[in-house]
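Entry 14. Two folds queued back to back today. First construct below, sequence then structure tokens.
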Amino acid sequence: MGVSGGGKTTLAQRLAGRLGWPFAEGDAFHPASNIELMRTGHPLGDAERWPWLQAVARWIGEQEAAGSNAVVTCSALRRTYRDLLRDGHPSVLFVQLNAPAGVLADRLANRRHHYMPPTLLTSQLATLEPLQPDEPGFVVDATGPPDAVADLVLARLAALRPTAVPPSATPPVAPC
């Protein structure tokens, strides 16, 4: 979870690959109307976000019903959005990716083939409600190389849910 440019997709693909878990890109659950709004520089409001979040939550429920661990990206900027995603889904654990605004802006300016314009970063940062201590999950610094961030997340996951993470997926030495 986190704002655009935080590295959600890059990290999720690495985690899913290392863990052998199904992966879903949260952006794929947006209806065309949401994508068009964002493409034209308009931030989504709650009216646009709720159906999208419900679709992501349904996918999570399908994975749980199948007995599968999985990885899904989702900005989940507000606590109420995260509450919806985990309602009835006890397996949900959030990994919030943090990076300074300048790093995020730089990543967005250099990103190609994505509908989300860099101009929406400010509204996302203003909307973001950081993960709270009573929410399931943790926050990581997403400024390092993607493989190092993945190592850190896997080590944290293994510490929190040792039976969910195969030993072959965790780095031999926890990163500093």
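Second construct, same run, same settings:
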Amino acid sequence: MLYKATPESPRMFENDFIDGFSRIPAWVVPAIYVPAVTAFVAVGAWSGVGPLALAAQLAVGWLVWTLMEYWLHRTLFHWVPDTSWGESFHFYLHGVHHTWHLDKLRLVMPPAVSISLGIAFFSVAWGVAQALAPWLDPTWVWAYFAGKMLGYMVYDLAHYYVHHFTPRTRVGKLLRKHHMAHHHNARFHDRKYGVSTTLWDHVFGTYAA
């Protein structure tokens, strides 16, 4: 189903087909990644990894994701190449979100992009697992990557939630305040990069209370 341009979700591309694919409802993320996470954990268990090891591998994958989330937002997403196409590159990658931050259909990454990146990242993890195989059983890669996918899913849904709902919990209120300051306070445009957690902002000195 393609979503058409509206005043709340303006057109990005002249081509209707491409423009339609730039709008993704948030429910698509769990629809894809809950089964994917479950399948990867199941493969890890089928490979002989015990419950405690699976949980540890999942947690490490999630932690690695949160660091990726922080650094991608801090570097790539806010990078404007000094070229004729630099402004357009930045707008299509991330600037669109800052410009139309209330657009409910442009808060999660299109599946074609997230799945392609996921395949690339898994290929790297698989290569590392094979390189370390003489010293470390490569079965760790399944639950580890499930943790990264779970972290990505939580990030996308948390991002949607803090923009379009009013959190009631202390953690939810903190994350919303943190992210809204990044969007709407000029003092914090180069601070407060974490979305699903403020951990790495504290570690790298970009929390800025």
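Quick look at the second one. Residues 38 and 151 are 13 Å apart (CA to CA). The chain has a mean pLDDT of 91.
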